[in-house]
Amino acid sequence: MNEARINEAMKYEDIVKNKEICALLKKGNENLGVLGYTDHSKAHCKLVAEHAAYILETLGYSAREVELARIAGFMHDIGNAINRTRHAEYGALLANDILKETGMEREDRLAVVSAIGNHDESTGGALDVISAALIIADKTDVRRNRVRTKEQANFDIHDRVNYAVTGAKLKVNVEKKTISLNLQIDEKICTMYEYFEIFLGRMMMCRQAAEMLGTKFKLTANGSKVL
What we know:
Order of helices and strands: HHHHHHHHHEEHEE
Distance between the termini: 36 Å
Shape: globular
CATH class: Mainly Alpha
Helix content: 55-70%
Structural class: alpha+beta
Mean pLDDT: 93
Strand content: 5-15%
Number of helices: 10
CATH topology: Hypothetical protein af1432
Number of domains: 1
Number of strands: 4
């Protein structure tokens, strides 16, 4: 994609303002709140968008690929408005219709749709650089303020795992060809065993996605290398 085509293409700023996308994200987050899930609001989606773009931009991918990763990151959870089960596939179908209406070029639209449809660890996996960046950005969003307001006595294991994270930093090292997630975990709230019970599958998905990008995924917790 040359610079002129980038300027004419559907931009991330347009997607963030799209009323249909925002309504789907709002409804999906409300549904997950009732079901007891952690935060999946626009705040989560914007962070995923930023991190997905950061990964590809730092690794030297094209402006087009960076922008498509950013768009996929923001839209990736719209399928939760339909159902949490197979939300990635529902989200891909919704995204295809929405992006078709915006006039996004077919090749770009399908890249975004494919990334969304393959971002869940139960059914998907990295198939290209867009989906790889989305997966890593999504699965590494672990933080205390994703836990919805409620008494700690009522926390389930997902709540404890997220609430126990007092610091998280995603870093791309071009020279070492690594993508690292560095966590600080309060083990009085959540043991390392509980953390891996929930996140091992997601971290392994990140490892496969990092390989798609020609890098290695590393995880450290409280200063110790884990993965």
